[in-house]
Structure formats: structure tokens, C-alpha cells
Design goal:
Helix 2 runs parallel beside helix 3, helix 7 packs across helix 8 and helix 11 runs antiparallel to helix 14. The protein has 21 helices and eleven strands. The protein is flat. It has four domains: 105 residues, Rossmann fold (3-Layer(aba) Sandwich); 164 residues, Alpha-Beta Plaits (2-Layer Sandwich); 103 residues, no CATH class; 103 residues, Orthogonal Bundle (Arc Repressor Mutant, subunit A), CATH 1.10.10.60. Strand 7 and strand 8 form a beta hairpin. It is 56% helix and 11% strand. With 536 residues, it is α/β, with parallel strands linked by helices.
């Protein structure tokens, strides 16, 4: 903050400047002025937070300075000084928005109290601004989510009367009339890399929607002009209003630009299916179901492409996956513990899918579900406690986004095959392979994120079932094991190295040393420093 002192008497300015330790109140710079006009110039250039000004000055008074500041710089707080004790001055000053009013000669204690009062007011206003900005962000986020959920409800057939829907739509700034002609665009992100998570998928989706907003409307607005959502199959759905017969070609052209931009700058490929023109809101549900079924059943896997339902045809192109159902069946190979052959067969199936010029999204899912059924059956037959946890994981059927490529199917199946192969050679009384995998991952990644979600991703198990499984197999919770491992490593580093406690905290996964010290004290009943001193 900066403060401006205004008085036509030089000795008063010097007294004000030298009497108070302004830096202790947060003022980094002090400005002085002997006239109102000069003070106004300074206030326009600097970052002035507080003005202390005399009332009676030649040419223009402090009251005039106050009035001008209230009009042009209302955030500046003003303290008025006067050698006159007439109450009328005080009334005018307070009426014009002065924060305080002091009489000359100035008493240091009174001035300090006045400054404190001003700072309290500044802090309150700053907090109000923060609260207001937070409330706006919450409102924006809430409005965006409400728009998404409403569209999802409508896509899945939820019914409203026209009046009810209008009352919901209007406050959400959705620029579509109930009987307006629209086109539904269904977008699939085709290439998801092996390291991508659900958060990455959501980030790509959000970025693609922002790019579409710029292409169609030349700017990104809040809430967005395009009404969109991500459905349960992880398709991006956009409802695009049309106003004339040529709009369809315009939409196609913009979406082709979107494909090029996403491919060039995000290094991702997308496929887009456009519905025929339909009437909102009577036909939205039925057109969505038709578009979804068409995409899953008929869309040829051709990244960086745009298709329309009336033009895509797969007659004579669709070919079944012959390798998937060859004899002996994959399940028979599993039952005979012929896991190397299982791996070879799955590779052959995925190779066939990769080299097919017309495989569909549904074929990819067909393979995943078939393999899932085989692994589930074998886990029941063998009584494998690890695999039994996978069976009950219904969230698997809502996680198709992780199988957008054959490489991901291959990685997932290989992890399970390796688990079965190793379990055959293991002593049943020892730790299972999955538990050793979990513990090794924790030990190797203590300095990074060893959350339940990250560990689950590493061993291809849902976090809930992984937690339950670990407790069942070891008798302790996974979080307890992570804490124990961190504390043991921390005690080793404290005893055998000269590293700083802050560095040790980070090395065992705690970014805040204070939090690490508190946990260490709870675990060992002493502080890290005392622990080190006692052992050296």
C-alpha cells in the first residue's frame, strides 16, 4: 500500500511522515503534497490506499479533494485534519465519505488509532471482494453443472411440461427455444494415451468444448453459449441450434476445423457423428438414442473424421472378430492354466482388430466384456481372493473410457494374466503377488502420490476393492501401511543422514514439514529433531 499526506504547511507534512512508522502498517511508500491539484495527480499515478489531508488549504479545500476522490477513486480511504473544531466540518466530511476526522494539533496516539480503523475497513472490503469473487465462481460452476445435468436428464428421457422446462432453462442462459430446429453432435476422443487418467479426459473434453465455442462464436463466454455435456459413455454431446437450411453445412465446416485444431495442437484424434436436424425438445431423447446406437454399432473407426447419420453406411464392411471365438476357446485355455497361450490368443485378437479397416467401437467393448467374463469365471473356479475382488466391481462397466485403444486392453489383460501365472508358483501361505506389487509401488513412490486411486490404477483394481482386499490379506489398512513405511524411512534418514528435516519430509511424501513433524510425533512420541539427537 501507499499513503498520501496533503497539507499546505511543510512542517505538518514532515511531522506526519516522521512521527509514524508507516512500514509497520504495511505502507511501502509515502507521498507528500502541498495542494489539492498535486494530490489528485499523485492519486491518479500511484497505488494510493489512504489519504490524510488538511481541510483548510489555499485555492481548494480538503473537502473538495474528498469529493473528487469519492467520485474517481472510491476505494481510497480519507482521513481529514482541521484546526477548527466546528461540528459542521465533521458533518460534511462524514457525509462525503471520510473514514475519520481528526483535530489539529495532531496527537500521535489518535492518529495511530485512526490508521488502525482505516486498515480494518480496507481489510473488510478486501475480504468482501474475495467473498464476492468466490460466490461468483461458485455460481458459475453451479450454473455450468446444472446445465450439464439438465441436458443429461433430457437426453435420457426425463419429462417436463413446457412451462416447467422454460422456468428451468431461462436462469441457466440456454439460448435454445423449445421448438427450435437443432443438430446433435456426438464427439469421441479416439486416442487416449496410456498415461491419461479420468482427469486428463475431462481436461481434454473441456478444452475441446472451449475450442468449439471460439470457432462457432469467436469467444468463450461464461456460461458457454454451446449447450453441452459428457454422457455416461464418455461421448461429448453438443446441441447446436440451426436457423436456416444452410446451417448444417456451416456446422460441418466448423467441426472440420475443430478436428484439425485438436489434432494439431492437442495431438489427439476425434471422431464426430452429426444427427439429422430435429425439433427441440420433443425429439431430443429419441434422436440421442438413435445417434448413440448408430455410433456404437455402425461407426467405422476412422479418427479425425466427421460423419452424418444419413450418409454413413457399413453394409458389406462389417466383419466379425474370428480370432475371438476360435477353438480352443480362451476360457478353455484359462481352465487348463495355459496362460502363455491365453496371452498369444489375446494378442492375435487385438492384432486382428488393429488391422481391420472397419472395426467399430462396439467391437472393442465386446472384447473387453468377453475377457472380463472369462477372468471372472476363472476367479470363481480357482477361489483366487485377488480376482474375486474384481468380480463385484460394477464401476468397471462405467469405465469404458480407459479402453479407447487396443494397447490399453492389452495392458489390462496382461496384468491379470501375469497375476494368475505367478499365483500358480506361489506358496499359498505367503503374500499374494498383488500385495507385493502394492507394497513395492508404495516403497518406490513415497516421495510422490501414493493415494489409493494411484495404487489402484497401477494394479488395475478399483480403489474401494483394493482397500478391502489389502485389509483382508494383511489385517491392516492400506493407509496404516503407507504411514508405517513413511515413518520407518524417515527414522532411517534421520539416523543415518544429515539431511534437513524439511528435505526428509518431502522425501517421504509430505510437502509441509509442520504436518510431517506432527505425524512423526504422534507415531514415535517425540519430535524428529529429538529423535535424531537421541540416536547420534
Amino acid at each position: 500500500m501507499e499513503i498520501l499526506l496533503v497539507d499546505d504547511e511543510e512542517y505538518v507534512l514532515d511531522y506526519l511522515e516522521e512521527t509514524i512508522e508507516w512500514s509497520t502498517f504495511g505502507f511501502e511508500r509515502i507521498h507528500k503534497s502541498s495542494s489539492v491539484d498535486e494530490a489528485l495527480v499523485i492519486s491518479n499515478k500511484g497505488n494510493i490506499s489512504v489519504v490524510i489531508t488538511d481541510i483548510r488549504m489555499p485555492e481548494k479545500s480538503g473537502l473538495e479533494l474528498l469529493q473528487t476522490l469519492r467520485q474517481k477513486k472510491p476505494a481510497i480511504k480519507v482521513i481529514l485534519l482541521s484546526g477548527y473544531s466546528e461540528f459542521e466540518y465533521a458533518k460534511v466530511a462524514l457525509k462525503n465519505g471520510a473514514t475519520d476526522y481528526l483535530l489539529k494539533p495532531i496527537i500521535e496516539e489518535d492518529l495511530i488509532e485512526s490508521i488502525k480503523k482505516v486498515l480494518i475497513e480496507i481489510d473488510k472490503e478486501k475480504q468482501n471482494e474475495i467473498d464476492l469473487a468466490t460466490a461468483r465462481d461458485v455460481l458459475k460452476h453451479g450454473t455450468f453443472r446444472m446445465r450439464e445435468h439438465l441436458l443429461l436428464d433430457l437426453l435420457h428421457g426425463k419429462k417436463f411440461s413446457d412451462d416447467e422446462l422454460l422456468q428451468i432453462i431461462q436462469p441457466l442462459n440456454i439460448n435454445i427455444q423449445l421448438k427450435q430446429e437443432c443438430i446433435l453432435a456426438m464427439i469421441q476422443i479416439e486416442t487416449i494415451s496410456d498415461g491419461d487418467s479420468r482427469e486428463d479426459f475431462e481436461l481434454f473434453s473441456s478444452t475441446i468444448l472451449n475450442l468449439a465455442e471460439e470457432l462457432f462464436y469467436e469467444r468463450v463466454t461464461t456460461p458457454p453459449t454451446i449447450w453441452s455435456c459428457t454422457d455416461y459413455h464418455h461421448f461429448i454431446i453438443m446441441v447446436l441450434p440451426t436457423h436456416n437450411k444452410n446451417e448444417f453445412e456451416h456446422i460441418q465446416s466448423k467441426l472440420n476445423e475443430l478436428i484439425e485444431i485438436v489434432n494439431s495442437f492437442l495431438k489427439r484424434s476425434i471422431s464426430i457423428l452429426l444427427s439429422p436436424t430435429f425439433t427441440f425438445y420433443q425429439e431430443l431423447h429419441s434422436i440421442y438414442i438413435k445417434t448413440l446406437n448408430y455410433f456404437l454399432s455402425n461407426m467405422v473407426s476412422t479418427p479425425n473424421s466427421i460423419h452424418t447419420m444419413d450418409r454413413v453406411s457399413t453394409k458389406g464392411e462389417f466383419k466379425p472378430l474370428t480370432k475371438l471365438h476360435e477353438s480352443p476357446a480362451i476360457l478353455q485355455l484359462m481352465e487348463g492354466n495355459r496362460w502363455d497361450e491365453v496371452s498369444e490368443r489375446i494378442d492375435a485378437v487385438l492384432e486382428e482388430l488393429d488391422h481391420s479397416s472397419c472395426h467399430t467401437h462396439s467391437q472393442r467393448i465386446q472384447i473387453v466384456y468377453y475377457l472380463y467374463s472369462c477372468f471372472s469365471y476363472i476367479s470363481h473356479q480357482t477361489g483366487d481372493p485377488i480376482s474375486e475382488e474384481i468380480i463385484g466391481d460394477l464401476s468397471f462397466f462405467q469405465s469404458q473410457f480407459q479402453f479407447h485403444s487396443t494397447d490399453q486392453i492389452r495392458q489390462w489383460s496382461e496384468s491379470l494374466i501375469n497375476q494368475y501365472k505367478r499365483s500358480i508358483n506361489e506358496d499359498n501361505g505367503g503374500k499374494s503377488h498383488i500385495i507385493r506389487q502394492v507394497q513395492k509401488f508404495i516403497e518406490n513412490n513415497l516421495h510422490e502420490d501414493v493415494s489409493l486411486n494411484k495404487i489402484g490404477e497401477h494394479v488395475y483394481l478399483h480403489p474401494v476393492y483394493l482397500s478391502r482386499l489389502y485389509k483382508k490379506e494383511t489385517g491392516e489398512s492400506l493407509s496404516s501401511y503407507i504411514l508405517l513405511t513413511r515413518m520407518e524411512k524417515a527414522s532411517h534418514l534421520l539416523t543415518n543422514t544429515n539431511k534437513k528435516i524439511g528435505d526428509i519430509a518431502k522425501e517421504v511424501g509430505y510437502q509441509k514439514p509442520q504436518y510431517f513433524i506432527r505425524l512423526f510425533k504422534e507415531f514415535y512420541h517425540t519430535t524428529p529433531q529429538k529423535f535424531r539427537n537421541e540416536r547420534n
